[in-house]
Amino acid sequence: MAKDRGDIIDLVEEAVAIEKAIDNEISTSTARSTGSIEVATRRKPKKVHRQNSKEGAINVGNFIHKPRSWKNSRRSRNGYGRGLPKKGGAGGKGVWGKYGSELLEDYEDVNDPNFDSENLNNGDIELKVVVPEVSNEELKKKCELIILEYFESNDIQEVAQSVEEIVPLNRRDVFVQQAIETAMDHKPSHRELTSVVISDLYGYVITESDIIKAFENLLANLNDLILDIPDAPVVLGNFIARAIADDCIPPRFIVSTKEKSDDNIFQEALIRADTLLSMKHGLVRLDNVWGVGGPLRPVQALTRQMSLLLQEFVSSGDVEEASRCLTVLEVPHFHHELVYEAIVMALEANSQDTEKAICNLLKAFDSRVLITRDQLERGFFRVFDDLSDISMDVPLAYVILDRFIDLCRNEGFLTDNIIKRFPSRGRKRFVSEGDHFVSRDKLNKAHEY
């Protein structure tokens, strides 16, 4: 009886345990389902991207076979994009990106040997603009280029802009010094341009102290300058006097500078400047201290200089001196006047020696390109046009000119245009009579008639 009661108790406890297990399982499954429902409720529903049908697409059921060209398409494939290419079309493997995009990116390469992780964006790094110091020799070369370009263009605004960009503010005296040194080795017209540019830049780009310091350095270096420029003291004295006349430096500069050295050359330059300033109306006359430039000279003065040049050459026969004198005149556009005066001189002389000398001079000028072919032709054409008037003073001008043309043609520097335009009036009569040379006595008798 007791055994049966014990079995019943075991069966009841077993049934209770099974019931509890069933209840636990039901509650667990209910909690899971409830949690999944809550998760599903919180999850954002996926947006379905509607795609339009493309040309060449094949619709099989719910699957679209896209063309092969779509394989490398850079459009977004997750359904959230706007259909635009990545990175504006500059993305992709093995590409560099858009032009200039590296300037907009802010990153540090940890593999860079110069990478410093301790000072990265911690405020200890301060960037400053560092301008390298230019040596004195290099600065002089740059200033010389500015001056040489100014001699060609005469553009003072360009000089001012170049000096402001290239020459440091505390070294502008180097520009003034180099400008004067360069001008001392050039023509008087270039020295005039240098004085003008110093006067125009004074108060804007250069100061009084810059000009004074430049003159002091030039006076100290006169012993070296005189080796290349024998008249350096005179030229420098002219520059000092002109600067005082232009109110760039005070007149007391001469008195205060004389006490700094007892050197003869040093004193000679200052005495030259003092003499020019002490002349009557000296400040006014200093405007032309370098003389009047070639293009500004009167035509009569240029013609007189050319006539003296030709007379000196006929007497001496020095081609080098004649070439130097022609170059100093600085009127390449007026060289046809020299050709005209030379031919007229040969016609009036009626001497084979004079004609040969003039021919050699014109040939030397042509070979050295001191006189261009255009200026040479223009001078001969002027003689041809005025030959009727010249023959009134020189009756045998046609014969003499014919002989002179033959002589120049044999030397080989006449052009075909000159030979073609040579006038033939009276040429046949004299050639037929064999009158190739007319003496001075015959010319005088012709003048008397």
UniProtKB/TrEMBL annotation:
This is Programmed cell death protein 4. The keyword Nucleus applies. Residues 138-259, 301-424 form the MI domain. Belongs to the PDCD4 family. Residues 80-91 have a biased composition (Gly residues). The lineage of its organism: Eukaryota, Metazoa, Ecdysozoa, Arthropoda, Hexapoda. Signal peptide: none annotated. It is found in: Cytoplasm. Residues 42-51 have a biased composition (Basic residues). GO terms for biological process: negative regulation of DNA-templated transcription. It comes from Sitophilus oryzae. GO terms for cellular component: cytosol; nucleus. Keywords: Cytoplasm, Nucleus, Repeat. Pfam families: MA3 (PF02847). The keyword Cell division does not apply. InterPro entries: ARM-type_fold, Initiation_fac_eIF4g_MI, PDCD4. Residues 30-53, 69-91 are annotated as: Disordered.
